Amino acid sequence: MTVTINDVAQAAGVSKGAVSYALNGQPGxxxxxxxxxxxxxxxxxxxxxxxxxxxxSAKAFAVGLVVARDPRLLGTDPFFPAFIAxxxxxxxxxxxxxxxxxxxxxxxxELAYRKLAADSRVDGVIxxxxxxxxxxxxxxxxxxxxxxxxxxxxxxxxFPAVCMDDTEGIAAAVEHLxxxxxxxxGHVGGPQSYIHGRxxxxxxxxxxxxxxxxxxxxxxxDFTAAGGLxxxxxxxxxxxxxxxxxYANDLMATAGQSYAQSLxxxxxxxxxxxxxxxxxxxxxxxxxxxxxxxxxxxxGRVAAQQLLSLLGGAPAEDIYLPxxxxxxxxxxxxxxxxxxx
Amino acid sequence: MTVTINDVAQAAGVSKGAVSYALNGQPGxxxxxxxxxxxxxxxxxxxxxxxxxxxxSAKAFAVGLVVARDPRLLGTDPFFPAFIAxxxxxxxxxxxxxxxxxxxxxxxxELAYRKLAADSRVDGVIxxxxxxxxxxxxxxxxxxxxxxxxxxxxxxxxFPAVCMDDTEGIAAAVEHLxxxxxxxxGHVGGPQSYIHGRxxxxxxxxxxxxxxxxxxxxxxxDFTAAGGLxxxxxxxxxxxxxxxxxYANDLMATAGQSYAQSLxxxxxxxxxxxxxxxxxxxxxxxxxxxxxxxxxxxxGRVAAQQLLSLLGGAPAEDIYLPxxxxxxxxxxxxxxxxxxx
DNA sequence: TATGTCTACTGAACCGGTTCAGGGAGCGCT
DNA sequence: AGCGCTCCCTGAACCGGTTCAGTAGACATA
Lengths: 341, 341
Prior knowledge:
2 copies of one chain form a homodimer.
Chain A: H1 5-12, H2 16-23, H3 31-44, H4 50-57, E1 62-68, H5 71-74, H6 79-91, E2 97-103, H7 106-118, E3 124-127, H8 135-143, E4 147-150, E5 161-164, H9 167-179, E6 185-189, H10 195-210, E7 218-220, H11 225-237, E8 244-247, H12 250-262, E9 272-274, H13 296-311, E10 319-321
Parallel strand pairs in A: 1-2, 1-3, 3-4, 4-5, 5-10, 6-7, 6-8, 8-9
The structure holds a DNA duplex.
C-alpha cells in the first residue's frame, strides 16, 4: 500500500540505514548512492511517515497554543484568530502543525499544559496574555517544554520573548488628546493582572504626568463590551467627568462610545474616545474610532519563527517588533469648552 | 526515565502482551492478573506513550479544522473562536487534540487537507463554511478522511451533517419587520457561493413572497464591515429605498448601521436593521441590534461529538440542532410613514 | 487414558522510521 | 608487506506500544 523506507532500500539495493542517511542529508553515503536512493524514493513516491518519525526521533513536529479564556467571550476578541493565522503562516513552511487548546479556567489551563506534555503532543508552546507573576513560566520549566512569550514577563523567565511595545501608542493617544486641549482624560483598562492591562495603564499615567496633568480616573474593566459599558457609565457619572477616555481595547471603546451616544452625548464633540487593536470594525463605526493597531498577524508569525529557531537550538534572545503608531480618526476632537453635564 | 509497558511487564512478572491486554481492557488475561498489572502500572506511574500508540494503532488521536479565510479578515469573524471552543469542550473529554490550520487561498486549503492526510495528523476533520458544490467532499473521500459537515451540502455527501436551520431566524426577522409596517425590506447577504449565504437570501425571499411583498433589493456582500458599508450605501442610494435591511451577519449590520447614522438617518426611525450571529457587541451598540443568535459553541461541541462517534464506527446520521430564535432589540421599529430621502 | 476444547499467557513480529557499532574496501605511509 | 586511517555501508537494536500465532495447562468428554 504505502511506500516505506524498506521498499526504497530494497529497490535501491541498499540497507534501511543507508536510505535514512541519504534522505536526511546526513553523511555516511557516497554522493552516487545518495542520488540513486533519492531518485528511487521519488520514483516510488515515498513519503515520510510522521508517526514513525515522531516515535523514533521523539519529536512531535507540532507546537501548542493554550488559550485561557471564557469560551463565550472568546469570540469577542479579534486578536486570536489573526494571531493564529500568523502562527500558521510560519508553521506551514516548516511542516509543523498547530495544536490548539481552549481552557475555561485556571485549573483547566494548567491541566491543558500538563496534557500536552504528558502526551508529548507538542515540541514547544507560545504563551499569550502574560500575567503579572505568571505561574506558567515555572510550570513549563518543570514540564520541560520550551516556550516563547509575548512580551517579557516581569518575573525571571528563561524563555525568549517577542515584544511589541504598547506604551508608545497609549502615550501617543494621551499626547494627541492633550494637544486637542483635553485635561481630564480617563482610562478604562483591562485586568491589571495582565501585563498588557498594566502596561497600558502605566503608559497612560506616565503620559499624563509628563503633560503636567493629574492622572484622572482609572477604571479596571475586563476587555469585554459589557465591562466597557459599565466602566464608561461610572466615569460619566463622576463629578469631575472626563472629556476623553482612553480604552485598553476597541471592544470596550465601541461599547463606551455607543453608551455615551445613547445618553445623548456626541462623540467627539462632548466626549473623545480612543481604542486599542484597530479591529476591522473600528473604521466603520460612527464616528470611526481613533485607535492603535496591534498587528496580531505579524506577532504570531514572528513568535512561531522564534519558537522554531529555539527548538532548532538557537539561543534564547528577545525580539523587538516595531511599536504600533496611533491611527487618528473621527472619535477624537477638540475638548469641549463647556462640558455638558 | 519514563516508565514503559516493558517496565510494567517486568515488575508484574508477565509479558509485554499481557500488559497491553490488561491495560486496554481486552480479553486474554485473568481477572487476578489484570488487577495485578493495573496495580503495578499505577504504582510505577505508567503513562501511555501517545506516539507509540499512534504508530502501532495507526491513529492520530486528533481531529483537524481547516479555516479557509483571508488571515486579515479572520479576526472579524466571531464565529470561529467560539466554535473552536465548542469543539474543544468535547475533545478534551476524549483525549483528543485539535489541529488547526489556516489557509488563505483555495489552493492552500486543498494543500492543507492533503498535508493532514499525508502526515496522518488527524483521524477526521470538521468542515465549516460549506459551499455550493463543495469540492472538499470529493477531496476528503479520495483522501479517505472521515468528516462531519456543518449543515448538509446540496451535493451528495457521505458524511454526517450537524444542521442548524438559519432560515427560520431570517424568516422571523422578515415577519417582525412586516408586522411593524415595513414593505420595502432589503437584504445584504453573504457570498452566494456559501450555502449559508444562499439559504439566508432564499429565506428572506420566501418570507417576503409569503407576506405578499415584492422581494425588494438584494446585494451580495462578503460578510465584512467594508462590504456591509458598500452594500448599505448602494441600497440607500436606490430610488425605491428600503425602510429596513436584513443583514446576513452582525458585522455587516453594524457597519451598515453606523453608515446610515453618519448620513443623518436615525435607526430605527428612518431605517430598521437586523443582523445575524448575536455577537457580544450587538447588545452594546446604539441602538442595540435586533439579530439571530448562532450558538457556535453548541455547534462546535456537537460537531466534535458527531465526528468522534463516527470515528468510533457509528453510522453517519445527521443531527438537527434547534433553530435559533430572533432576538428583538432597538434597531428595529415601526416603518416611517414618510420615508426621508 | 486418550482426545478435544477452552483459558491464560508468551514470544515474536510489526508499525516505520533513527542511530550506532562494526566490518570490508581502498588508500597512503613506512 | 604490514599497518593504520578514512570512507561507505550493513545489520541490528531501538523508540513503545499492538497483535497474532502458538503453547502449556486445566478441565471436560468419550
